[in-house]
Design goal:
Radius of gyration: 20 Å
Helix content: 40-55%
GO molecular function: NADP binding; phosphogluconate dehydrogenase (decarboxylating) activity
Strand content: 15-25%
Mean pLDDT: 83
Distance between the termini: 32 Å
InterPro entries: 6PGDH_NADP-bd, NAD(P)-bd_dom_sf, Pgluconate_DH
Number of helices: 9
Pfam families: NAD_binding_2
Domain 6-phosphogluconate dehydrogenase NADP-binding: 74-146
Number of domains: 1
Shape: elongated
Low-confidence stretches: none
CATH topology: Rossmann fold
Protein name: 6-phosphogluconate dehydrogenase NAD-binding protein
CATH superfamily: NAD(P)-binding Rossmann-like Domain
Number of strands: 8
Largest sheet: 8 strands, mixed
CATH architecture: 3-Layer(aba) Sandwich
Structural class: alpha/beta
Length: 233
């Protein structure tokens, strides 16, 4: 596939590297010659303004935004032609995503929001959007995160929303884990337990576990309720 990418930060470069490694072609809306030079060794990438890129893109035209927000993102919506799929991985309030979806739908375009979870252990994509748009961009999602590294959460807005819920879940797990460590320190075994080794083992063990089904069901229910309130249920 070919795709137009907006942005030139770390997230943009990381996503671009993964796409180029899977032979996707990128039209990059940037004047950052250093970025284009680094990525040029990896595959087909060319710097050009978005108006020119839209003329070059195959159908369906896919535009991936990593940095624009607010008025800039709103202005982008105005110039996108019918049939375009706008993918937005810039964190944004889910209600704003719903409004953008409605604006794009009026002109025959689609919106996909991607909540990005990235750290030294994993890359996960929480994806919101209608089924048609999701299926169109799925080859890109697979190239970026691999099989099992992305999750279609539901309609547009659900991706960023569930990413926020997942962050809350992780914070609660971390808080509980910290409490357990404190209990170990106050126990009669503290002098004989290597707490650092315990923390490392527990951390790695937890990272390898998928979220339990009951947690996913809870997150999905929360997303559904929120979307119903905003008129998408």
């Amino acid at each position: 596939m070919n795709i137009c990418m907006l942005g030139d930060g770390f997230e943009t470069e990381d996503i671009a590297r993964r796409l180029l490694a899977e032979d996707h072609c990128i039209y990059q809306d940037t004047n950052n010659s250093a970025l284009l030079g680094r990525l040029g060794f990896l595959g087909k990438i060319k710097g050009m303004e978005i108006q020119e890129a839209l003329e070059q893109l195959d159908e369906p035209k896919v535009v991936w935004n990593t940095e624009l927000s607010g008025r800039q993102l709103s202005a982008l919506v105005e110039i996108l032609p019918a049939g375009t799929i706008l993918v937005n991985s810039r964190a944004q309030y889910f209600a704003d995503n719903i409004q953008l979806t409605a604006r794009l739908a009026k002109k025959g375009a689609h919106y996909v929001d991607v909540g990005l979870a990235m750290d030294e252990y994993r890359l996960a994509l929480f994806v919101g959007g209608n089924q048609q748009a999701f299926q169109e961009v799925e080859p890109l999602l697979a190239a970026i995160a691999g099989d099992g590294g992305y999750y279609h959460c539901g309609p547009a807005g659900a991706g960023h929303f569930l990413r926020c819920m997942q962050q809350k879940y992780e914070a609660q797990v971390q808080s509980a884990f910290s409490g357990i460590v404190e209990e170990v320190r106050q126990s009669p075994f503290n002098d004989e337990i290597d707490v650092e080794a315990f923390v490392i083992f527990g951390h790695l063990y937890c990272k390898k576990q998928p979220l339990p089904n009951m947690v996913w069901q809870f997150l999905q229910a929360q997303a559904h309720n929120a979307l119903v309130v905003h008129g998408q249920g």
